[in-house]
Amino acid sequence: MPDQPQLEPNISNVELDEEVKRAYLASAIGVIVGRALPDVRDGLKPVHRRILWGMSELGARPGTAYKKSARVTGHVMGQYHPHGNQAIYDALARLAQDFAMRMPLIDGKGNFGSMDGDRPAAERYTECRLAPLAMQMIDSIDESTVDFIPNYSNETEEPVVMPSRFPNLLVNGSTGIAVGMATNIPPHNLGEVVDAVVKMIDEPDVDVEELMKLVKGPDFPGGGIIMGRNGIRDAFLTGRGSIKIRAKTAVEEGKRGTRIVVTELPYMVSGDKVLEKTAMLVDTKVITGVKARDGIRNETNREGVRLVIELTADAIPQVVLSNLFKHTELQTSFGVNAVSLVDGVHPRTLGLHAMLGHYLDHQVEVVTRRTKHRLKKAEERAHVLEGLLIAVNHIDEVIAIIRGADSADAARGALIERFTLSEIQANAILDMQLRRLAALERQKIQDEFDELQRTIAELKALLADPKKLLALIKSELLEIRAKFANPRRTAIESDAGEIDLEDLIADEDVVLTMTRTGYIKRVKANVYKTQRRGGRGVKAAQTKQDDIIEHLLTTSNHAWLLFFSNRGKVYRIKAHEVPEKDRTARGVSIRQLLPVAADETIAAIIDTRDYETLRYLTIATRDGIIKKTEFGAYDSTRRDGIIALRLREGDEVVAVRASTGSQDLIMVSRKGQAICFTEDEVRPMGRTAGGVIGMKFRSDDQLQAFDVVRPASDLLLVTDAGYGKRVALDKFPRKHRAGLGVKAMNMTSKKGFIAGAAVVDIDDEVFLINSGGVVIRTRVKEIRSMHRDAGGVKVMAVESGQELVAMAVVADAEDDDEAPAG
Asked: Model confidence at 536, in pLDDT bands (50, 70, 90)?
């Protein structure tokens, strides 16, 4: 045998500490990137991504037969994840656990474990397939939307990231421990997260404060109660925070005495372990007031969690409950540490805005690549059809060329030369079946070609306009939301350790009154009792001799209030910022709350509780001018006010109403004329616009009231002499705006002039106020319904020298106890 060549030894001298650092760093990076941390784009770790991809390859999709879990884990281990079948199965089981995942991605059949710590059955006993929502994770993956890389053995390929058509990282959260870092991201509500992404699409400059109004906080699959908002705020702003979670409990009275019942537990807390710990604490006298061990039991079943803790006869339930929260896992903390991989390799701690921003960037890339792929396929198909159309239009010549050719290659070349075709088109013609020569088949080719041309134009337009691309992403997200989102399960309550002014104020119904000279106050609505019409009322405010109550509004403590001034400006504060006073107190000057000018008065006050359902605010002025503007244009945090409309000289604001944009409007003059017209006649204008003519008047008349018409409602009119009536709104003919209107009430010297008018329902109640500060609350149905030309009946006793000056409607009145008049 010839001598074997001698190999030179490849030996390098390195410092031991440097080699250890290098090897350790390489191992750490491998664990961080390849195993422990989720990708911010799809919220998946490699093992989860490989499981979903492997199940898709096996055809274990919704609507198909379940596959044995052992078959799935074997396929994933053999093809993509050579780290042992138990690790793969544990990850697969978690994806199927509805107590661990807010929106499970795997539909499991069999025992996949329990929240009490029970292990899943062996993989040979359980079966699985992809959940419907998981299909949104891999949607369009076959359209070049993501990159693929070789698997560990270079035998096949796997996706680097999933298209993930919904924000899975926030929806399902993630937990993992890497080398030198860890991640712990709680699950959130799908609907809320999608709403936040849509908000970022609609308003690219939106800040995290606005996003937090949509994403309330984590939403755990088992419910529970989050105590306080500071931890949520920290997590959303910085990516780190501690969130206190408490079980949902109730105190019940049963045959055996008082008991505490737990119906929801903190995230991943075992009910059995809670009861074991409780029993131990009872035995050691740490917790008293609980019966012996037979009074502590777990009644959890398929209907849900139910832990029962029976109390002794002398126990104080709230004290026992407080001790249980302190000493057991009925109250825990979730330490948020939102670490995920950015660009697939860089671990970053991300707040809410950054996390959603990276996801949205991923969706832009996915949809762009999908569109390019579809455009390429459409253009390729159109290219082939173009060649086929040439062939069918010159079929005799084509047949002659093919029949005269010595071979297929010669025919291909002749076709290319004669008709200036590409090789692809020539091959398509040679492969064309004879049945395609039929007239119907030829028309099908032409129809398909025309449709493809439209598709190509749409795809090119989509790629050319980023706004259209974002609009498509938005529509697809909203489709997913409509199909899969469900209500929030985890409640959020105030924590006694977090003192927030608004949290300390009950969101109860209140009545706001304001005098002509600008004194305002807030009073609980239940202070005013319902009275029969014609009553004398109760004292609402101690006004000065030359002052009268001019505005009255029913709202709630937490509602935003918009104050429209007679000068055309609008100011905004919360209702609870108006000081609460006694029923007979005068209140405080509005100038203590708002920067109202000395010569400026408040002409209208409305609340914003219907901001999301009513699109426009419509303003009417004394001269009959009307202006409609989008509601959101007045959503300003500037306390010094903003321009509401540009007024003409000598004019002032009378009323402001919220509307949908397609309702009827009604305007009422001081002398009893009324005009009703459709809102479509008033085009939407900018916030500072001046408006258009809504109603014209005869001499010495002016606008007194304005409202939005509701179906099957009445118009309630009251005069300054205390007379009133209801008139069915269908008695008012629809006119065009800028007219004089029709008679709404027969005015006489005894009846006086119109003091107020409003659209009402039969179940409403109405507050009536006279110039002496007396308020009466009466049911609308107590006021007679009459014809337009009737003069009305007495609705409030007005003493000599006084007038009825204002009214306000309370919707859907309840049956309050009547109070005596006077």
From this structure: very low
Residue 633 DSSP label:
G
Q: How far is CA 44 from the centre of its chain?
A: 24
**Structural domain boundaries, residue 373:** 362-484
Give pLDDT tens digits for 120-174: 999 999 999 999 999 999 999 999 999 999 999 999 999 999 999 999 999 999 9
Question: What digits encode the pLDDT tens for the residues 72-82?
Answer: 999 999 999 98
What integer is the mean pLDDT of 245-249?
94
Closest to 172 (Cα-Cα) out of 137, 232, 219: 219
Q: Active-site residues: which are they?
A: 125
Polymer length of the chain: 822
> Domain check: are 480 and 519 in the same one?
no
Contact 654, 705 (CB under 8 A): yes
Q: Find out whether 305 and 222 touch, Cβ atoms under 8 Å.
A: yes
CA distance 480 to 477: 5
* Mean pLDDT value across residues 66-89: 93
In terms of domains, do 317 and 427 share one?
A: no
Closest CA to 174 of 365, 347, 364: 347
Q: Where is 616: in which H helix or E strand?
A: strand 616-621
Q: At 275, is the secondary structure helix, strand, or coil?
A: helix
- Does residue 571 share a domain with residue 474? no
Whether 720 is covered by a domain: the verdict is yes
Has residue 572 been placed in a domain?
A: yes
458 residue type, one letter? E
Of 484, 515, 545, the residue at which a domain comes to its end is 484
Question: Are 665 and 794 found together in one domain?
Answer: yes
Q: Are residues 703 and 761 in the same domain?
A: yes
- Tell me the CATH number at 386: 1.10.268.10
Calculate the alpha carbon distances from 493 to 48, 219, 322, 497, 558 in Å. 34, 13, 16, 12, 15
As a whole number of angstroms, the distance between CA 105 and CA 187 comes to: 13
H/E segment holding residue 92: helix 85-96
In which band, very low, low, confident or very high, does the pLDDT at 34 lie, cut at 50, 70 and 90?
Answer: low
- Maximum distance among all alpha carbons in the chain? 136
Alpha helices by DSSP H, listed for 165-312, are 168-172, 190-202, 208-214, 230-238, 271-283
pLDDT value at position 496? 60
767-794 b/e (C-beta count within 10 Å ≥ 16 → b): bbbbbbbbbbbbbbbbbeebebeeebee
Which of 329, 348, 383 terminates a domain? The answer is 329
Confidence (pTM): 0.60
| 3-state per-residue secondary structure call for 687-735 | CCCCCEECECCCCCCCEEEEEECCCCCEEEEEECCCEEEEEEHHHCCEC
Distances in Å between the Cα of 757 and the Cα atoms of 625, 751, 767, 791 are 18, 15, 12, 14
Report d(CA 463, CA 240) in Å as an integer: 38
Q: What is the CATH number of the domain that holds 689?
A: 2.120.10.90
pLDDT for the residue 11 = 78
* 21 is a domain residue: no
* 642 and 583 inside one domain: yes
In a domain, 11, yes or no: no
